[in-house]
Specification:
It is built from eleven helices and nine strands. By secondary structure, the protein is α/β, with parallel strands linked by helices. Strands 1, 2, 3, 4, 5, 6, 7, 8 and 9 form a nine-stranded mixed sheet that branches. Helix 2 links the parallel strand 1 and strand 2.
């Protein structure tokens, strides 16, 4: 109770116009939950919620249209791009603070927004703030471990890029100053991981990024091996540790094999600590092995197919 009183006292100082930008397609199962959580937020007043729908064939648009302050923008499916669509929303937004939120990411309390804005307003050098991701019920344990490691229970302030940090920033739930976005928009043609590429540029420009666990959303995916391969391939084409294709071809397998071994061993140690029956532990270990193998195979495919500067 005392924590809530503390936050209620702080929220009265926020004077920024706030635009929430949500890309969506066929999200009828979660868009209502997402918007309900947004509309229940305490503290800073929300100017608008800009939903950009890229060709939903379900009830996503009909559900979204029921809510106040929602601006529904429709684009053709072929016009969608992770960076491009978020740039479209940011350009249309009226707010000085841009809140990016996935349609399947559900804010977990009434102060999710306030705590993002509070962190962003600490100092002008902070270009962006992102939330903690909590795993959904039934989330595969290897993914739960990844989220727990990348998004711990303590605040992190980042001032430099880290090639081993795969969650330098996340637009699944994040706040960005519009004045920063104007100078550093997302890359329009980037296939995925637009937030990681953006984070590298703003950090290299001397800005800070903040991760705050006080703002959290429910968000995780149980990918199939095929989905994991293609996802990580696209990521590998964007986030690539190799200076050229030759080094990627010859050094990539060693990095990939090492990654599989390290990740699986850590997964197995994590799984064994949990109070699951033996058959459940074995099932989760097999899932981990499949996911890590397909994921690093995808990374390798992305590394060797990226167009490197000559």
């Amino acid at each position: 109770m005392s924590i809530n009183r503390h936050w209620r006292k702080i929220v009265t100082t926020h004077k920024n116009r706030i635009s929430i930008i949500i890309p969506a397609k066929n999200e009828e199962k979660t868009i209502g939950l997402c918007l309900d959580a947004i509309m229940s937020q305490r503290g800073p007043e929300i100017t608008e919620v800009v939903i950009i729908d890229s060709g939903s064939t379900d009830e996503t648009c009909a559900i979204a249209a029921r809510y106040e302050k929602v601006r529904l923008i429709t684009i053709r499916p072929e016009e969608f791009g992770h960076g491009k669509t978020r740039n479209l929303g940011a350009g249309l937004a009226q707010g000085e603070i841009l809140i990016f939120l996935n349609a399947d990411a559900i804010p977990q309390d009434d102060y999710w927004l306030d705590r993002l804005v509070l962190e962003l307003n600490r100092e002008k050098k902070i270009a962006g703030v992102y939330s903690r991701h909590l795993p959904r019920e039934g989330c595969h344990l290897y993914m739960a471990r990844d989220l727990e490691k990348a998004m711990p229970a303590f605040r992190i302030e980042k001032t430099r890029t880290d090639p081993l940090d795969f969650f330098q920033f996340s637009t699944v739930s994040a706040a960005i100053r519009k004045e920063i976005w104007v100078c550093y928009p997302f890359q329009d043609e980037i296939p995925i991981a637009e937030d990681q590429e953006w984070a590298e540029r703003v950090l290299q420009a001397g800005y800070k990024l903040v991760y705050t666990p006080d703002s959290s959303v429910l968000h995780s995916h149980n990918y199939s091996s095929r989905e994991m391969f293609h996802l990580k391939k696209r990521v590998g084409q964007v986030v690539n540790p190799f200076p050229n294709r030759i080094s990627a071809i010859f050094l990539g397998p060693f990095l990939s094999l090492g990654g599989i071994i390290v990740k699986c061993c850590a997964d197995y140690a994590y799984i064994m600590k949990l109070g699951l029956p033996l058959i459940g532990k074995i099932r989760e270990m097999i899932t981990s092995l499949k996911a890590r193998t397909s994921g690093f195979a995808g990374h390798y495919a992305g590394w060797v197919t990226k167009s490197h500067p000559q």
